[in-house]
Amino acid sequence: MPVSTESPLPAAADLLHWYDRHRRTLPWRAAPGERTEPYRVWLSEVMLQQTTVAAAGGYFRRFLERFPTVEALADAPLDDVLKLWAGLGYYARARNLHACAQAVAREHGGVFPDTEEGLRALPGIGAYTAAAIAAIAFDRPATVVDGNVERVVARIFAVEEEMPRAKPELRRLAGLLTPQQRPGDFAQAMMDLGATICTPRRPACALCPWTAACTARAAGTQETFPRKAAKTARPRRFGTAFWVEREDGAVLLRRRPAKGLLGGMAEIPSSDWTAERGSSEEALASAPVAARSWRTLTGSVGHVFSHFALELGVLAARVPQRTPAPENCWWSPPSELDGEALPSVMRKVVALARG
């Protein structure tokens, strides 16, 4: 049910005045009075999906150093992009990033479209990212709604509907607040307010420029918003990774399928990830190469994905120098292993095997 908005809305001017004094300094954010380059806005927004500001900062700087323009990113091999992205997670973002850069460079002359509609036509750009680029880079009056904004709006209007069903209503309400003047600064101000003042726990309501207009604050229930449905247990999966070294120390790696989880990334070859824990003997049916003997490494690797938790045992073997790499596999020399496009779960396997 839509929330009543008969009471006066919070004034955008109050939030913008607060933002002018307290805005965060971020590596992708332009200085006051300057317009941020669309490339930097797009790159940062893609990185910040499912990733904290602290984690994204270093990656953003390294990407700009390696790919200073959208054309440079478009011209780079996808494997180079995946290697630089390794560890940031949600690797479909990296593949979409590369595809989008190629579309902008080849179909738009290296210039990003300046409307939400034009931006959404690009690979990997959804409603949120299109709105963020349109507002921040081009000062279009677009409504930008991320998790921080959802929390602010849910508290301002005391939206009782549980997440994620409340998302459309929160977006509608956020649209009522978006001003025609300085929409880019307003979007960033909303994000900053949620990140620094209207935090999930212990919000600093006394410092909030909208405290007088906040329905949840008036009722003393601000920490209970947004309402959340009870979490369901995350399923578990099990598998076995195969750490195979040649006599010269090179390690066998395999390329994952282009589509699907960890698509296109390198991996330590592993068995299928199943709901039931299998024996080492069963796992060896999936071994990528034949070896005289396998040993079970002490410990296991745990990793949590968005929809399941994974536990990997590790079997290790040493093979002769002449052992060929199977199809879709290659031998990575010790000096190059750390630079391979290995996702976090596989880097944990490497750490366990080395340790």
Written account of the structure:
This protein is α+β, with helices and mostly antiparallel strands and 355 residues long. It has 15 helices and 7 strands. The strands form 2 sheets. Strands 1, 4, 5 and 6 form a 4-stranded mixed beta sheet that branches. Strands 3-2-7 form a 3-stranded antiparallel beta sheet. Strand 5 (301-304) and strand 6 (309-319) form a beta hairpin. The longest helix has 16 residues, at 92-107. The model has no long low-confidence stretch (mean pLDDT 94).
Provide a brief overview of the structure.
This protein is of the alpha+beta class. It is built from 15 helices and seven strands.
Low-confidence stretches: none
Mean pLDDT: 94
Q: Output the radius of gyration.
A: 24 Å
Distance between the termini: 56 Å
N-to-C SSE series? Answer: HHHHHHHHHHHHEEEHEEEEHH
Q: Oligomeric state of the chains?
A: single chain
Q: Count every helix, treating DSSP H or I runs of 4 or more residues as helices.
A: 15
**Which percent range fits the helix content?**
40-55%
Q: Which descriptor suits the 3D outline?
A: globular
**Class from secondary-structure proportions:** alpha+beta
Write the layout of secondary structure elements.
Layout: H1 12-22, H2 38-48, H3 53-66, H4 70-75, H5 78-85, H6 92-107, H7 116-120, H8 127-138, H9 147-157, H10 167-177, H11 183-196, H12 215-219, E1 236-246, E2 251-255, E3 266-267, H13 280-283, E4 295-296, E5 301-304, E6 309-319, E7 329-332, H14 334-337, H15 344-354
Parallel strand pairs: 1-6
Antiparallel strand pairs: 2-3, 2-7, 4-6, 5-6
